[in-house]
Amino acid sequence: MATRTRRTERREEPLSRERIVEAAIELLDTVGERGLTFRALAERLTTGPGAIYWHVTGKDELLGAATDAVVAGTMPAGPADTTPQEAIRVLALGVFDAIETHPWIGNQLARSPGKSPMLRVFEHLGRQVQALGAPPAFQFTAASALLNYIVGVGGQNAADARAHQARTPDTGRTEFLDNAAAAWADLDPVEYAFTRGVAGQLREHDDRTEFLAGIDLILTGIAHRQPG
Amino acid sequence: MATRTRRTERREEPLSRERIVEAAIELLDTVGERGLTFRALAERLTTGPGAIYWHVTGKDELLGAATDAVVAGTMPAGPADTTPQEAIRVLALGVFDAIETHPWIGNQLARSPGKSPMLRVFEHLGRQVQALGAPPAFQFTAASALLNYIVGVGGQNAADARAHQARTPDTGRTEFLDNAAAAWADLDPVEYAFTRGVAGQLREHDDRTEFLAGIDLILTGIAHRQPG
DNA sequence: ACCTGAACACCGTTCAAGT
DNA sequence: ACCTGAACACCGTTCAAGT
């Protein structure tokens, strides 16, 4: 009786793709991309490195699955009850925020083939572009532009986070921006005239607001596109 | 006399940062990112791995320098003698084409910190945005949006090239697109309704044209932006 | 000042052997 | 069917020793 009802100990739950991906995400979040190692992962799952290969074909698939799991979580379940524009903003911000909490997604999104994670975002963007009333032949272009912009910002944010972490780990966000702005202001006056000029705006700017402004720019472009 | 004028043999030119970066680019172009190894690089330069570290701090810097060298080569030397819109298109296409010939740049751009290569593109984009007559407070946003879009497409193209290379090396471009379109058409009809619908356009689409259409979309957005 | 190359401390992945 | 963990074939990076 007793043996029949006892719970198996947490550490001895059978290995599964889900548990592996879950542990990989944890590792990525806590120790970064470099910390995700088959040996570290195996230790966390109290097993050997080889065992993981029974459930996952290799590191690339593991990274892809981890990214997909996180991105899937940010996608809305049902249809939006707002304007398409607002739905697109919410969608974009969802990805943006996911990258902020899991910076490693930023790289992974950019390098994942046209497969799962990107496709999810593309699909949801496309639906809203459709709801926007864009002509069919233009929907592909519009959804792609939005997706590429989002992925581009994501990659950049991830790179910034990495640089921030690697070079000035214990410095605050504002201090980090101050340093970057100071570096811009120090650039060659003729070769980097424009960049120097906007250095001040870099200091003041808010990543999130700036990201949304870019989204709105594209939305405006979609609304005013020249028929062709 | 003879000894004085003889050329030193190519293989025995002294090591230099430039030669190292040049060899790294060659390696990246021919054997890909995975082929760039300090051992392979050392062999090509007929020296030991350790020697490289005298001129370069590590692999990250080397990749950054290689990317910067290529990107710098695509930037225009003087002011453009066309409309700002056209100059932006040329600029964007320059980066696009550079990524097509050197796919590894795609990743590298996305992961290079706000440093050199990105800054070059940002500067040139900014100047044209300025020439476009965008209000100062908006120039930063506009240039950033263009840059992020370009980098996003670049990363995606690089990922595609990698996937194409890894999975179907000896298949043509059109066949590759056909396969992707077929995969899209096979997606779940309710979960991926939009993506299935545009699968046909994926087959017909031209990356370059599509890329430019996205640029034009953002340019339209810049032209029609709501004052605020 | 610059180069050499063995050595260190890791990796991802495989695979015979176990259960 | 699934797990184990030693072993293989690599990496990037360091560093004493050379010139």
TrEMBL record, chains A, B:
Residues 37-56 bind DNA. Keywords: DNA-binding, Transcription, Transcription regulation. The keyword DNA repair does not apply. Pfam families: TetR_C_1, TetR_N. The keyword Transcription applies. Residues 14-74 form the HTH tetR-type domain. Coiled coil: none annotated. InterPro entries: Homeodomain-like_sf, HTH-type_TetR-like_transc_reg, HTH_TetR, Repressor_TetR_C, Tet_transcr_reg_TetR-rel_C_sf. PANTHER family: HTH-TYPE TRANSCRIPTIONAL REGULATOR RUTR, TRANSCRIPTIONAL REGULATORY PROTEIN. This is TetR/AcrR family transcriptional regulator. It comes from Streptomyces longisporoflavus.
